[in-house]
Amino acid sequence: MEIKNDEKVKVTFYPANKSTKVKKGENLLRAAMAANVHINASCGGAGTCGKCKVRIDSGEVTSQITEKLSDEELRENFRLACICNVESDLAVSIPVESLLDKSILERKPKKVISPILGVAKLCSLTPECQTESVVVKLHLELPKPNADDNMSDLDRVSVALKKQYELDLPSTDFAVIKKMSKILREADWNVTATVVLTRRGAKLINIQKGNTTCCNYSIVIDVGTTSVYCELLDVCKGEPIASASNYNMQISYGEDVISRIVYSQKKGGLEKLQERIVSTINGIIEEVIEESGVDRENVTHLVAAGNTTMTQILLGLDPKYIREAPYIPVANFIPPVRASSLGLNIENNAYLYTFPVISSYVGGDITAGVLGSGMFLRDELTLYIDVGTNGEMVLGNKDWLVTTSCSAGPAFEGGGVKFGMRATKGAIEQVRISPDDHEPMILVIGNVKPKGICGSGMIDVVAELLEVGLIDQSGKFYRDKNLDRIRKGDTGYEYVLAWEDETQLTRDITINEVDIENLVRTKAAIYSGCVVLLNNVGLTFDDVDSFIIAGGFGHYIDVERGISIGLLPELDTEKFTFIGNGSLLGARLVSLSKDMLTEASKVARMMTNIELSNNKMFMDEYISAMFLPHTDLSAFKNTMGRLEKLWDRNNHIEKGDDIEL
Amino acid sequence: MEIKNDEKVKVTFYPANKSTKVKKGENLLRAAMAANVHINASCGGAGTCGKCKVRIDSGEVTSQITEKLSDEELRENFRLACICNVESDLAVSIPVESLLDKSILERKPKKVISPILGVAKLCSLTPECQTESVVVKLHLELPKPNADDNMSDLDRVSVALKKQYELDLPSTDFAVIKKMSKILREADWNVTATVVLTRRGAKLINIQKGNTTCCNYSIVIDVGTTSVYCELLDVCKGEPIASASNYNMQISYGEDVISRIVYSQKKGGLEKLQERIVSTINGIIEEVIEESGVDRENVTHLVAAGNTTMTQILLGLDPKYIREAPYIPVANFIPPVRASSLGLNIENNAYLYTFPVISSYVGGDITAGVLGSGMFLRDELTLYIDVGTNGEMVLGNKDWLVTTSCSAGPAFEGGGVKFGMRATKGAIEQVRISPDDHEPMILVIGNVKPKGICGSGMIDVVAELLEVGLIDQSGKFYRDKNLDRIRKGDTGYEYVLAWEDETQLTRDITINEVDIENLVRTKAAIYSGCVVLLNNVGLTFDDVDSFIIAGGFGHYIDVERGISIGLLPELDTEKFTFIGNGSLLGARLVSLSKDMLTEASKVARMMTNIELSNNKMFMDEYISAMFLPHTDLSAFKNTMGRLEKLWDRNNHIEKGDDIEL
User: Which domain holds residue A64?
Assistant: First the structure.
C-alpha cells in the first residue's frame, strides 16, 4: 500500500551527513525535517526570521528573493532553507548558527503520504473498483425531426442514448423535460446529456447545448461535527481540483452531537441547525467554485459523508431518537436528494448522495472511510481509525467488519486547544524541539507565519516536549526548567512555540497543560476504543496486519510520534497508512465509481456495531491510557526504552556532561 | 357491451299504450321521454308549470308535495310527472290537457347508459383489467424497537412491508423519511403506509397514524380545452363519490389550442396559462373535497387526461413546437409529477399521473378514451369518437389502432351557442317538439328551471326542429310558420325553447340559426373525420362492429337523433355505446388498476396517427356533410325515408287532413 510519489531527489545535509529522498520541488526546510536535521526556524517557513541560513554545496535550488541575505552570502551560495526548493540532488551545509542539531538520535524517516489521492492512487487502495462515475455526460448528435420522423423530443433523446450508448432510459427528471425542447433547437440538435447510472437503469438529469462531456464535476463533502471539508473533483480526470474547509457553523449551538440534538429539540432548533450547516457548505462551495473557475451548471452531483446526527440534520431529519434508547436512526439508506431542495446553492439538476449509516453512533463517515480504505476487499486484518470529535474504529477484512465509536473530543481539529486550528494555511503542522536549547523548529502550512497549531503539530509538540524532557508522563511541565519559553500563563504552565513577532497574531503562540490534557483525553479514548474492539473479537494489536489512520490532523501524520504519545499502538511503522480525510476519500470513490455506491451499501450492511457507552472494560482502559504513552508499559516497551535513553541523555546534557554524538 | 342497470320496472302509458322499462326510482317524466310519449313540460321538471299532470292507475310512485294539484286531484291519484318517481310497475293515464302526443311515429327506444360507470361497470368494458389501484394503503403493526432490535425506522417499515405484504421497497419519498420517526412513535407503531406500485417496485409515499386503509381516494381530471371535469373516486370501493366541473379559465386567452399556444409565446404567457388551468382545477378540487367530506390527506393520487397542448400547459411545458412543423410534442410519456409542485392544492405526497400522448394533435384524452373503452383488448372493429372542441377518432381492434383529429368547435360543450352550457344543473338535456302545435317538452338536469342547453339537448332540438319541419336541411327556419315560438331575434330567426318565466333567466331561452350552423359545422367535422379515417384503411361504416361515443354531451345521448342530424352514421343503434366522458373513464381505470398504467403506454404506442390538415378528401367530405343529415343521401337512406314520411305527415296536419294515428 506504499503510495508512489513523483520524481525523487536525494538531499544530504552536512556536517551531520544525513540524507533523505524528497520529491523534486520540495521545500528545503521540509527536507531537513524529513532528514531529522534540525535547523533554526521560528517563522514557520515565511522567510522572515532569516534563521534557517544554509549553503548549497552542489546541486540546484530555486529560491525566492530575500533581504535577509547579503550579496556576498548569495554569491557564496547561501540561501534561506524555508524559501528554497530542491531541484536536483543536493549537498547542503548547515552553518553553526543555523545548526543546533548536535544531538538528535537516529530516527526512522516518518511515513509521508500525499494528502490528496487521485484516481490512480485511489485504485491502489481499491484496485477492484471501476472508474465510471455515477453521473456521466454523453454527447448526442440527434437527427433533426421532419414530417416522417416526428417523434417527441424526449423520445428522440432516448433513442439516441440507446443507439449511441446502448443505454435504456427508464426515467427523466421533470426539470429536463421542461427545458429540453428549447435547448435541443437552440443547440441545433447537438447536445450533451447528463445521466445518472443506477442499479435500476439510467435517469436523465440534464441536457446542455453542444459537447460538454469534458466538464463533469462533483463536490464531495465531509460533514464533520466540528469541521466541514469540501473538494471539487474533475470527474473525467478523476482528481480533485479545488478544496476548502471551514468550521461547522453549528458549533455555536454545541460542541458535540449530543448538545446539537438537545438544541434541535427546541422550537425551530432543527431548522436553525440545518440552516447553519447548509450555510457552512454553501460558503465552502462558493470557495471551491471560485478557486476552480468551474461553471456551477457543470457540477453534476454531490456526495456527503457525515456521522448519523450530522447527516440527519443536513437533510432536515429530526435527530431526536438518536439520543433516546434504543437509539434509532431515521434510516440507514437515504435516497439521493435534490441538493437545491435543501438550500444548497447548486443547480437544480444535481442530487446529493449521502453515505449509508450503520447506527445512531456509527455514521456515514465510517462507511465512507472503510470504503475508501478498501479494507472490506482484502484478506488481511485491518484496523481503521477515524480521529474526529467522535473517534471511530473499524476492525475486519473482506469477510467481517466490527465497529465502535467513542467521544474523542475535538482536540485534533483545534477544539479545546488554546491555539488549536484546522489544518489550513498558517497552522503549525510539524514541530521539533532541540534537546539542547529547547528551541523549536516549526513548519507551517503554506509557509507563512503561524497563527495556530493543527492536529499533526499537536502530536509532534506533545511528543517532543515529552522526549526532550520538558513535560512528564502525566503531561505536566517540569517546574524546574529555567527557560524563557516555559512560563506560567493564564491557564497554567505553557511552552512558547512562536514569539509574537514571529506570528500572524498579536501574542505568542503557546501550548499549555490544559491543551495537553485535552489531547491526552482524545488519544486515550481512541487507543482504548481500539483495545476493546480487538478484545471483543478475541484479538490484540499483534494480530493487526494493517493500521489505517484517518482524520483531519493535517497533511501528514508522524507515526512514530503518534506512538510516543500513545495515540497509536507500538507496531511496525510499515503497517501504518495515513489516508487523511477518510470521509472525503470514500466520497471521492462514490463520485468517481458507480459500483462504489453499491459497495457502500454492502459495507454498511456488513458492519456489526459494538456499543462502548456503559462498557466497563472501555472505562478501565481509558483511565489506564490517560498517561504518556500509557500506564501499561509492556505495551510500549520499545518506546519506553527509547524515551528513557533520551531522558537519560538529556540529563547528562543539562549537567554539562560531554557525551558522544 | 350492453351495460346492465339496477332493478327495472315497466311503465305503461295510456291511452297511447306505450311501455318502457326504467330503473326503479326513475323520474316519471323521463320515463315518458324514454317511451316516446309526449307530455307538456316547459319548466324542465322543476314542478313549477304544473303542465305534466298524469293519473297513476296502478302501481306505486313517490312524489314531492306540490301546490299545483288540488286535494281532490291527489285523492284521484293525479300527480305531476316531473316530480314523481317510479317505484314499481306502473299504469299511467295521460289526460288530454297533458297529452299532445297524438302523432309521433313509433321509434325505437334510445339507448340510455348510466352516466357513471363504477368498477363493475368498468370491467364490463375491460374485463381483463385487475382492480388493484396504482396507489395502495397497507396497515402495519410494527414491533417496537428495543436494544436487541434497533434497526432504523425506515428499515422497520420496509421489513414489515416485506413480511406482511411480500412487498420490496426500493424507494421512499424523502418527505416520508422526514416525518416518519415522529408518526411511528405517536401512533405507537400502528400505522398505515401508502405505497405506489410501479413496474420497478414499490415506492413509499406516505405514512399515517392508525389504520386508514379504508380512506384511499383519488381525483381524476379531464383537462379539456373548453371544460374541465373532476371526479373524486373512492379507490377501495372503486366508485366516484363526488364530481364537479367548470370552464377552463384559459378561455379568456383563446378558444382553441392554437390560440392558447400563440398566447403562451408572449412574455409570461405560458406561466399565466398554467396558472389559469391550475386555478380551474383547484376550484374544482375544492368542490369535490367539500361535497365528499373527504380529508385532503387521504387523496393519494391524481390522474389527468387532456390533449397534448392542455397536458403540456398544465405541466408548464412550452407548447411552442406543437404548432410548428413537423409538430413535435415535448414527450409522449411524462413521469408522475408531485401535484403540489404544479401549484395544485393537494397534499405534498400525492403525485399527478398524466396520460401518454400520441402526437401533437392526438393527446392523452384519446389514450384515456381508448383505454376506457377497452377497444384495444377486443377482436371486433371499433370506431371510437370523442366529441370535444377537438374532435378525435380512433379506429381499430386489439391488433391495430389508427387515429386522427380535427377541430370540431365547442358547440357540444356550449361554446358558440347563445344559450349553450355544459351538462350541469339547469341545462336542457332532452327535447321533444310536438309535430301538432310545435310545443316543446324539455327535461332539465337536476329537475330545475332551465338556464341553458347542453350538447345532448342541442342534438335533440336540431333533430326535432328538422323532423317536425321547422327548419330545412341547411338548418334555416322556414319563414312561413306562423308560430309565437318562431321569431326574428337579434341574430336572425330563432325558436323559443322556454319562455322567460319558465327559466332561471330574465329572458327567453332560444335556439337560433347561428347556433344551428355551429352545430352543423361540428357534426360535419366529426362525421367526415370518421369517413376519412375508415377510407384510409380501406374500410367503410359497414365494417364497424362497435361505435363508441365519448363527449361532454350530457348524461345521455340520443343515438337516433344523432343519426338524424348526421353526426352519427346510419348503423344499427345496437352498435352504439355512449361512455360519457372518455377521458374520465380512462383516468378512473388508471387510478383503480395499476396494470392500466402499463396498458395506457401500450395503447399510446399502438396508435398510428393520420394527419387531416391539408387532407383534400377531408375538406370535400366536410363540405358534403354541411347539410342535415348529409348531402350524400345514400348514406342516410333509412333516415331520409323516415324524415320524408314525417314531413309529409306534418304537411297533412298543417293542411288539416284527417290522418290515421
Answer: 8-102
Q: Do A565 and A512 share a domain, yes or no?
A: no
Give tens-digit pLDDT for B434-484. Answer: 888 888 888 888 888 999 999 999 999 999 999 999 999 999 999 988 899
Both B506 and B541 in a single domain?
no
Which run of H or E residues covers position A301? strand A299-306
B333: distance to nearest CA of chain A, Å?
8
- Distance (Å) from the C-alpha of residue A154 to the closest C-alpha of chain B? 5
Predicted pLDDT at B98: 54
Verify whether the Cβ–Cβ distance B178 to A334 is below 8 Å: no
Ranges of H-type helices in B187-337: 257-264, 269-292, 308-314, 320-323
Same-domain check for residues B338 and B309: yes
Among B151, B321, B334, beta carbon nearest to A181: B321
Q: Does the distance separating the beta carbons of B325 and A147 come in below 8 Å?
A: yes
d(C-alpha A591, C-alpha A331), whole Å: 21
Hey, are the CB atoms on B326 and A150 less than 8 Å from each other? yes
Verify that A490 and A385 share a domain, yes or no. no
Q: Which residues of chain B have a CB within 8 Å of the CB of A154? A: 330-333
What chain B residue is nearest to A181 in terms of C-alpha separation? B330
A336 and A222 in a common domain: yes
Which of A152, A176, A209 terminates a domain? The answer is: A209
Overall number of domains in chain B: 5
User: Mean pLDDT in chain A?
Assistant: 87
B337: which chain A residues are within 8 Å (Cβ-Cβ)? Answer: 174
Name the domain boundary from A102, A127, A161: A102
Q: Are residues B502 and B388 in the same domain?
A: no
| Cα B467 from Cα B565, distance rounded (Å) | 10
> Is the pTM here over 0.80, yes or no?
no
The closest CB to that of B182, out of A181, A318, A331, belongs to A318
**Other C-beta atoms within 10 Å of A121: how many?**
18
Please name the amino acid found at residue A557: I
Check whether residue B324 and residue B430 sit in a common domain: no
Of A456-465, B118-127, B227-236, B577-586, the range with the lowest mean pLDDT is B118-127
Taking an 8 Å cut-off on Cβ atoms, the answer to whether A328 and B147 are in contact is no
B485 and B582 belong to one structural domain: no
Inspect the interface and report whether the beta carbons of A321 and B152 lie closer than 8 Å: no
B87 within some domain: yes
Which of B155-159, B489-493, B526-530 is least confident? B489-493
How far is residue A529's CA from residue B76's CA, in Å, rounded to a whole number? Answer: 101
Any domain includes A415: yes
Q: Is residue A125 part of a domain?
A: no
> Looking at the domain assignment, is residue B111 inside a domain?
no
Question: Is A277 within 8 Å of A321 (Cβ atoms)?
Answer: no
Task: Determine the residue among A158, A159, A181, A314 to mutate to test chain B binding: the one whose Cβ has the most chain B Cβ atoms within 10 Å.
Answer: A181
> Could you tell me if B300 and B350 are in contact, meaning their C-beta atoms sit under 8 angstroms apart?
yes
Q: For A554-571, how does the pLDDT look when each residue is reduced to its tens digit (9 = 90+)?
A: 777 888 889 999 999 999
B39-63 pLDDT, tens per residue?
A: 766 676 777 777 788 889 889 998 8
Whether the Cβ atoms of residue A233 and residue A591 lie closer than 8 Å to each other: yes
Do A152 and B318 count as a contact with CB atoms less than 8 A apart? no
Domain containing A402 — which CATH number?
Answer: 3.30.420.40
Q: What percent of chain B has pLDDT over 90?
A: 52
